[in-house]
Amino acid sequence: MNITQQIIASAQKTINIEQAAIANLSSLIDEEFAQAVQAIYSSKGRVVITGIGKSAIIAQKIVATLNSTGTPALFMHAADAIHGDLGSILIDDIVICISKSGTTPEIKALVPLIKKTENTLIAITSNKTSFLGNEADYVLHAFAKEEACPNNLAPTTSTTAQLVIGDAVAVALLDLRGFTEKDFAKYHPGGALGKRLYLTVQDICATHQNPAVTPDASIKEVIVEISKKRLGVTAVVLNGVIQGIITDGDLRRMLAKNDSLEGLTAQQIMSENPKTVNHTAMAIAAKDILEEHNISQLLVVKDGNYAGVVHIHDLIKEGIA
Fold first, then answer.
1. If you average pLDDT over residues 12-37, what whole number do you get?
2. What's the confidence (pLDDT) of residue 87?
3. Is the pLDDT of residue 63 over 80?
4. How far apart are CA 22 and CA 164, in angstroms?
5. What is the structure's pLDDT at 263?
6. In this structure, are residues 48 and 155 in contact, taking their beta carbons and an 8 Å threshold?
């Protein structure tokens, strides 16, 4: 076996081991899991998640997922907890402790302190009969038969299992809360993801001047308007109502067909029944229309009247297209 084959075989083995562990987790979801989720859902406090080593890193990711899906959460490192950070736990908080073995010294020191404050304790562990498993009010069984590490030492499969259990908790809570796309957008206002959920056509077209000519406008007036507004297009409008559209491409085709421009009007070269989008539509909906019809611009309407233009470059700039 050459080095390339060795690398491929190693990677495939890792994936297969972790895949088998994840598949097995489904059979471990039981009434106790449901009761733990219900306890979090009914709680007036937050979810405090703690762990040590690699489990602490998984805890931070689960905290981020919970916060972004409507369940207030915070991370507390197990080592720091016994040196002052325990004060961050409030009376109504629920504590989730993550540990593969459930027997590390830090966990053994921390758990009795949590029990003394009478906070509900949920364990995510591979060993249900461990110290942590026995002391917890609820146990979420993140069983990992073996690590993907050849020496069965480096946390790999076990941390993957912990992460999946955390996602299962977060999504179950999301479902219970009826968490919608609008809610998600509220917690994700930045970046392309947030923009897909809250940015509207109105937000985009408001940044432009609205190129428009009347049906009887001359070709020179059309060219000037398209050049001036710099969107490669102009709407043909009569009394506020869209009659058609003229693009750069329409002008090129017109020049190829006609030796003289004298007497030509916007109405004679415009494309009728152009694709439009309502000003309240989501920007992502405008993107779908542009892609479906393989066009670069959409005319925007508001209350039946012309309101502006959305260009594919606008969506690219916003990270949507």
1. 96
2. 87
3. yes
4. 7
5. 80
6. no
Distance of CA 67 to the CA centre of its chain: 13
Residue carrying structure tokens 């507004």: 229
Q: Which residue in the block uniquely carries the two structure tokens 């229309």?
A: 289
Task: Return mean pLDDT, the chain.
Answer: 90
> How far is the C-alpha of 232 from the C-alpha of 187, rounded, in Å?
36
Q: Residue with structure tokens 């869209």?
A: 242
pLDDT of residue 204: 84
Nearest CA among 197, 177, 227 for reference residue 67: 177
User: Which residues sit opposite 246 in a β-bridge?
Assistant: 234
- Both structure tokens of 186: 């509220």
- Please report, for residues 62, 114, 115, the alpha-carbon distance to residue 82 in angstroms, rounded to integers and kept in the order given: 21, 10, 13
At residue 22, the pLDDT reads 95
Among 31, 149, 51, 37, CA closest to 101: 51
Q: Which two tokens stand for residue 111?
A: 């758990």
- Statement: residue 19 has pLDDT above 80: yes
- pLDDT bin (cut points 50, 70, 90) of residue 203 is confident
Beta carbons of 291 and 262 less than 8 angstroms apart: no
85, 244, 245, 258 from 269: Cα distances, Å: 72, 9, 9, 11
Q: Measure the CA–CA gap between 279 and 202, rounded to whole angstroms.
A: 5
User: Considering Cα of 32, then 37, then 38, then 42, what sign does the dihedral take?
Assistant: positive
Task: Assess contact for 229 and 247: CB atoms under 8 A.
Answer: no
Pair of tokens at residue 219: 């070709």
Structure tokens at 256: 């190829």
Report how far apart the first and last C-alpha atoms of the chain are (Å, whole number).
Answer: 44
Beta strands per DSSP E along the chain: 47-51, 73-77, 94-99, 120-125, 138-141, 212-213, 233-238, 241-247, 271-272, 276-278, 297-302, 305-311
Neighbours of 254 (CB within 10 A): 16
Tell me the pTM.
0.69
The reported pLDDT for the residue numbered 70 is 87
CA nearest neighbour of 310 among 264, 214, 245: 245
